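Appendix B, record 7
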Amino acid sequence: MKEKGIEIPNNDSKMKEILQYVLKEAIYTFIMKVMFYYILQTEDADMANKLKQDIAELKPSEPELFKKIFDEVFKYAIERTGDFEEVFKSNTVDKLTIPQLLLVNLTFY
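Structure tokens (predicted):
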């Protein structure tokens, strides 16, 4: 949190507020990466196949596996394009696992 200039609070209410903010940031960052990947895959059939292949076995109720698969997909995008490392690279927020409750109703098309 210090990387964002946020001091560690001394009460539970403030800590909860900060953690909610960080979770929203993590979800927003992830969604932006997925959207960018979808845009790239419209021009590259191999990228589209990679995503379909990887998520075919994914059960959304497994947060660690979910994160691992998308980390691999994003790494593949960097390798395939030779670009967009700034978009797909991991940062502090990416290290957080998306909560299982958010994955339960997730549907892949």
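Remarks on this record: The helical segments are 12-41, 45-56, 63-81, 85-88, 100-103. The radius of gyration is 16 Å.
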